[in-house]
Amino acid sequence: MKASLPGHVTQYLKDKFGEKPEAWTYALRSPGRVNIIGEHVDYTGGLVMPAGINYAIYFLARRIEAPEWRLHAVDLDERVTLPLPLTGRSGTLWADYLAGIGVQFQDQGQFLPGLEVVFGGDLPRGSGMSSSAALEGGMAFLLNALLNTRYSRPALAALCQRSSNTYLGIPSGIMDQFASLNGSESGPIILNCHTLSSEPVKNALENYGFVLVNSMVSHNLSDGAYAQRVAECQRALEAIQSVFPRVTHLSATLPDQLQSVSDRLDDTARKRATYVVDENKRVTRAVIALEAGSSIEVGNLLNATHAGLRDLYEVSCDEIDFLQAFAEQYPGVAGSRLMGGGFGGCTINLVKLDRMDDFKADIVQAYEEAFGIGAECYPVVIRGGTDFL
Ligand code: GAF
């Protein structure tokens, strides 16, 4: 095994079991994700450009004789035991993310073995870097190996999304789980969320890097606003389909089609649909700009996405708008926007490398002065998807 398990996880094994990592049959890394552009369009069948990153959750696992799952959340110092076969919710959200995956395998006729699973890492929770998808993807990857089910990575992502949607009741799209499981070492991927086809995008930006700024305002996908956006997009799609029945998903709507059905949409549905249609065009342009190494164009597209998320999609908040506005005018920042589900979490910022340190220090100070909150900054390194150590 490569020695890349975080020290606190290794220490936990030593303290609780008196063991080294080598005593465990499975060891794997499941990354968080960033999304460069293509926000809130995975559930409308749109294009997204996410990447697996340098922050991750690490899993160690082995079979046990007892018919139960013993789950250890190292970062929280919590432990939950679930009897097999898995049934209803456990009452602990992190355990339910893992159990939900087990339930998907069970529903496909798999017999789940007794397991001891230890996990922990450096992925901040509730920051919009998708620790929940890393949990789901890691568990799915583990069970796929353990049960020898041989599902492809895209099929595992679909299984994880099903778990979120049906077991946890969160109507999220597939982007986060797909990015965590299918990330490419060489750069972000472009994913078509309607067909689930993906390919790596060459990042030719020179002298620029991405950094996340965490507002430390917590978002929660299970609150109503996310589900409301999904429903509003569905409403817009149905109105569009009443005139253009061959439009299969909202992101496939052409600007002219949207224009011509405009008076059939209520104000909210019109704003949501306009954002979705615009965002799809921005993602296409961003692929070209990134591959051409045009930091200015990529940055402008990030800023434009933020304006759309704030004014048309209405998923931002004061803290995030402050961080974005500060970054947008900061010398050496090409662009900035809200990343992830919204209502808090992180901004993603494209920053000149030689301005990175100043930017981080200045934005943290300005945010502290404005809101009395200590922001955290995370420089992003793009890494491959979930894999064994
Ligand atoms: C959350 C969801 F889980 C994703 O599916 C996606 O919709 C994202 O918000 C917004 O782009 O992370």
TrEMBL record:
It is an enzyme of class 2 (transferase). It comes from Neolewinella xylanilytica. Residues 15-63 form the Galactokinase N-terminal domain. The lineage of its organism: Bacteria, Pseudomonadati, Bacteroidota, Saprospiria, Saprospirales. GO terms for cellular component: cytosol. Residues 288-363 form the GHMP kinase C-terminal domain. Belongs to the GHMP kinase family. GalK subfamily. The keyword Kinase applies. This is Galactokinase. It comes from the Bacteria. The keyword Nucleotide-binding applies. InterPro entries: Galactokinase, Galactokinase_CS, GalKase_N, GHMP_kinase_C_dom, GHMP_kinase_C_sf, GHMP_kinase_N_dom, GHMP_knse_ATP-bd_CS, Mevalonate/galactokinase. Keywords: ATP-binding, Carbohydrate metabolism, Galactose metabolism, Kinase, Magnesium, Metal-binding, Nucleotide-binding, Transferase. PANTHER family: GALACTOKINASE-RELATED (PTHR10457:SF7), MEVALONATE KINASE/GALACTOKINASE (PTHR10457).
